[in-house]
Amino acid sequence: MSGFDYIPAPSHGSAWVTGASGGIGRALTLKLAQAGWVVYATARSEDKLQELAAEHDNIRVAAGDVTDAERMRAIVAEITSQGPLALSVLNAGVYYPMRAQEYEAETAAKTFDVNLTGVSNCVDPVLKALFEQDAGCIALVASVAGYRGLPRSAAYSATKAALIAMAESLAFDLAPRGIRITVINPGFVETEATSVNDFKMPFLMQTDEAAEAIVKGLNRPGFEIAFPGVFVGILKTLGFLRPRSYFWLVRKMIGWDKVEK
Ligand SMILES: NC(=O)c1ccc[n+]([C@@H]2O[C@H](COP(=O)([O-])OP(=O)(O)OC[C@H]3O[C@@H](n4cnc5c(N)ncnc54)[C@H](OP(=O)(O)O)[C@@H]3O)[C@@H](O)[C@H]2O)c1
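Above are the sequence and the NAP SMILES. Below is the predicted complex in structure-token form.
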């Protein structure tokens, strides 16, 4: 069995979703609970997690900040004390768009702390549990913004590119053990995070559709789960361009070629 085609069944253990209080994570938690998973839901806003748990008996509140490594270890310990941790979706993330003129190290650091260190804080105890169990699935939520540096996304794209590289690197050790690792690269999804965007987001999806695409992807073999297909195809094609052509074309696509911006 290759590590890219293994998806445990809900009867084989619990699921853990970070960033479950809103957006994609909330929709995914509900969908997994409806599919029979016992889902541990993590985010900082305990009140929102309690509201979510009230929507389905299978949802357990495990509030915490992903930048708190000790708390992430404690959550995984709590889950594994009840049985195997079969599926972890490390989804918590922040998005603070900024142009070069507005670049601030503090804002970038907040992005690195949650999107990278936060994921790493979860990866550590999850991997230990998966090696112990010799089974299970870990999914890192990156983004199509990790394929190449996108406008306004110096810090955000950097974290998502890093997560894709992290998942690829881990796959070398996990796949041969039958432990599945997958990277989830969504396009634009309408959430609180993207509500700050002041442009028309192409191929915008709703959180339910995104959650559906993730569940479908987890049920299919493969390393990457990316959606929506056409947008992913366009961005992957842009990925093949030389930097000069890439900058020229993207500036044109977003209208930055018309006005000197
Ligand atoms: N929306 C999109 O278009 C899009 C596209 C590609 C990738 N993504 C990725 O998908 C993931 C979810 O995005 P979203 O759009 O659903 O965002 P969202 O609606 O803003 O939700 C983000 C979630 O992360 C949690 N979170 C933030 N900081 C946290 C922290 N320090 N510790 C624990 N939880 C934290 C938030 O809960 P609390 O505030 O309660 O902690 C919330 O539950 C992110 O990784 C994002 O980068 C989104």
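The longest strand covers residues 180-186.
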